Amino acid sequence: MLQYLVYNIEGNVRQLLSGQIQDIHHNKTISEQSCAVCMETKLLEEFETYYTNNCVHPNRTICNNCLYEYIRNIWNIGSTINCPECSIPLSHITIHEILLNHDDNALYERYEQFDLNRSLEQHPEFIWCAHGCGSGQLNEGAAMNKTVQCVNCHKLTCFTHRCPWHDGMTCEEYEMPRTNGQMHASERWINVNTKECPTCHSHIEKNEGCDHMTCWKCKYEFCWECLAPYSNIKRHGVYL
């Protein structure tokens, strides 16, 4: 009888332990997931935060770290940041949270500035300096005040045409058809002294310093001479 009880207890213990082991394996299976990008198995908490409420894919398959790297690389080439799984634009809140969670304060500040610039541009009286100094301002009474003096470089910009002020001509005269080969002085100045940002096509003036340029509007970094992405130059030493 004693042997039977010992055997029965041992059997129950083995059965209990076996069940616990199965539960442990089961919990491990459902609490981990493989990332579709880095292929590493990670805890489900790495996939819990949703990109945006507008996403149309059922579940996340990319871990938090790979999502951060995706945002960082996309932002460095100046593109719009969309969901990597369904191409829906990521919300500003989502991008802010991801950058802050990875302690990338530098990129966070750049994105904040970009977000602010985009909001300012929606104001009907806001204008950027057409001389490429990176300054912008509100032009109160824009309907009547066509000439805007930059608070930074003090040069004049035409509010109507968003170009350097056309000396000696009214806006109506500036819009008059020109003969073949004729070019306004303001257009000549832009062509000679500025280059377009490869991403947002804003005109940028290079006053001094090295060829590493940062667009005043979209914050895209590029080479002044060849317009190549500066991220490639920084990574390889030369543009490849």
TrEMBL record:
It is an enzyme of class 2 (transferase). It comes from the Eukaryota. One of its GO terms (molecular function) is zinc ion binding. Pfam families: IBR, IBR_1. It catalyses: [E2 ubiquitin-conjugating enzyme]-S-ubiquitinyl-L-cysteine + [acceptor protein]-L-lysine = [E2 ubiquitin-conjugating enzyme]-L-cysteine + [acceptor protein]-N(6)-ubiquitinyl-L-lysine. GO terms for biological process: protein ubiquitination. Keywords: Metal-binding, Repeat, Transferase, Ubl conjugation pathway, Zinc, Zinc-finger. The keyword rRNA-binding does not apply. InterPro entries: E3_UB_ligase_RBR, IBR_dom, TRIAD_supradom, Znf_RING, Znf_RING/FYVE/PHD. It comes from Adineta steineri. Its EC number is 2.3.2.31. SMART domains: IBR (SM00647). Residues 31-240, 35-87 form the RING-type domain. This is RBR-type E3 ubiquitin transferase.
